[in-house]
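Weekly structure sync, notes
Attendees: PL (lead), two postdocs, one rotation student
Agenda item 3: pending single-chain targets
PL asked that the sequence for the first pending target be pasted directly into the notes so everyone works from the same version. It is reproduced below exactly as submitted, 182 residues in total.
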Amino acid sequence: MKTARDLFFILVIVSLIFAGCGDDSDYQTERPPEEVDQELNQFSMVRMLEGRTKWKLNADAATFLESDRVKIEKVELLIFGDKGDETMTIHGEQGEVNQRTKNIKIMGNVIGIASDGSRLNTEELYWRDRAEKLYTLPGVKVTITYEDSVIVGEELEASPELETAELKNVTGISRSEEKESE
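Predicted structure, written out during the meeting:
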């Protein structure tokens, strides 16, 4: 009897250890207050990889926190393609940068404009740096406007130029009709 109880106790301890091993720090919504390490006005940050600019972030203000996070206000994110061309410009009221992963969260009246004129509108948008993808969390409404159509849905995952975009719970698609000239 004692052996079964000891085995159960060990399994509970091991389960608790593994449950705490995940890294969802970019997605937590409730965090305890953190100590401010530094504050800046007119903040700019550039992400370079293998000699090319991946993105450039501009903000009116930045607050560096001890947890490797930077809170930003009045955000502009410029995303660049493999050839150095600007593929998307995103604006939002506020955001957050994880300095360790280089992932970015932009919130509040988020508007993205691709180089071909396509538009993305939402209230919260994430940039996953390693995968070079834009995405939203479940339940966040997204509207994408192309030259000839508008798509409304949730849970976006897209390339920065919006050439490929996957939406779930699509609630509306409209296509504009081309008028023939006489």
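Discussion points:
- The chain has one domain: 34-175.
- Residues 34-175 form a domain with the lipopolysaccharide transport protein A fold fold (CATH 2.60.450.10).
Action: rotation student to compare against the earlier draft before next sync.
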